[in-house]
Design brief:
Helix 2 crosses helix 3 and helix 6 packs across helix 7. By secondary structure, the chain is of the alpha+beta class. The chain has a seven-stranded antiparallel β-sheet, covered by helices on one side. Strand 9 and strand 10 form a beta hairpin. The protein folds into two domains: 215 residues, Glutamine Phosphoribosylpyrophosphate, subunit 1, domain 1 (4-Layer Sandwich), CATH 3.60.20; 72 residues, Alpha-Beta Plaits, CATH 3.30.70.260. Helices cover 25% and strands 32% of the residues. InterPro entries: GATase_2_dom (IPR017932), Ntn_hydrolases_N (IPR029055). Pfam families: GATase_6. This is Glutamine amidotransferase family protein.
Length: 299
């Protein structure tokens, strides 16, 4: 059992309050996931000629500026660094794969959490409130955010096994449920060049989306394929640079509720996680239909 929450702001005036609005939603899911928690926030977007990487390391005092100096020398470009607990967000003008390789060469114990123009993924083992406080979630700004609280079932309690899982540039996935065919799919996806770091079935779902997107599918098409190809019970929320998508399996075994007002669209595994949002008493509320892909975002 896990908890999922998401918040997309239709009203840009609220973007300075995104973290403040979202933090109680994440903490409300503690009962569904006390082992670890994480979130992917979208904002502070860089230009098309740049990339933004979120990195984490076990050492709270890791010398991120030493890494930045190496990257500046190798790519002949300025690198900005923002520290956040044991994480750092780096921005530079370069291509993704050479930067990944340079980071690994510098120190292969650095974990690359996300790469894109807008996304930042932060996650850790611990209670949701501890994770929120660790990364100062309440002070964060942005346009939308998705989060997850985990109660480990099929694999160990580790940061690597916590959600969100990255699925590509500015893409990520959180999952509530369990997949029955993940072992077979993992082997098939490995043959397609998809790499895995855990035995978590949710990482297989993320890998599936990565593969479909590489093959040219849209996010909607990839999720529609997931409905057909992934066996088991699931509610997925997928973050993109422009918004987020929600889909439930055809049986809709795992709970989900949506809320929409003129100011926002929100989703959660349980209604009480939405109860602190402004104007929730007048929101349109509904349960997502089984086997249907929903998407909210820009454009």
């Amino acid at each position: 059992m896990c908890g999922i929450v998401g918040l997309y702001l239709k009203n840009s005036v609220l973007e300075s309050q995104l973290g403040e609005l979202f933090e109680p939603m994440l903490i409300a899911m503690t009962g569904r996931g006390p082992d670890s928690a994480g979130f992917a926030i979208y904002g502070d977007e860089v230009g098309d000629d740049m990339i933004k990487l979120t990195l984490q390391h076990e050492d709270e005092h890791y010398p991120w500026h030493s890494l930045a100096e190496i990257l500046e020398e190798e790519f002949n470009t300025a690198v900005s660094v923002m520290h956040n607990a044991n994480a750092a967000v780096l921005k530079l003008s370069a291509e993704e794969m050479p930067v990944r390789a340079a980071i690994t060469d510098f120190d292969d114990s650095i974990r690359i959490m996300s790469v894109g123009h807008s996304i930042e993924i932060l996650k850790e083992v611990g209670l949701p409130q501890q994770i929120a406080e660790r990364f100062t979630l309440s002070g964060m700004k942005g346009s939308h955010i998705i989060g997850h609280t985990r109660m480990a079932t099929e694999s160990g309690v580790t940061m690597e096994g916590s959600h969100p899982f990255t699925t590509g540039m500015d893409l990520c996935l959180v999952h509530n449920g369990s997949l029955s065919n993940h072992n077979r799919l993992r082997e098939e996806l490995k043959k397609e060049g998809i790499q895995f770091e855990t035995e978590n079935d949710s990482e297989v779902a993320a890998g599936y989306l990565t593969w479909r997107l590489r093959e040219g599918a849209s996010v909607k098409e990839a999720l529609e394929g997931a409905i057909e190809d992934l066996d088991g019970f699931f509610t997925f929320t997928v973050g993109t640079k422009d918004g987020f998508a929600v889909v439930r399996d055809p049986i809709a075994c795992k709970p989900a509720v949506m809320a929409e007002t003129d100011d926002y669209v929100a989703m959660a595994s349980e209604y009480h996680a939405l109860s602190t949002l402004p104007g929730i008493e007048n929101a349109k509320l509904w349960e997502p239909d089984p086997g249907k892909v929903y998407f909210w975002g820009k454009g």
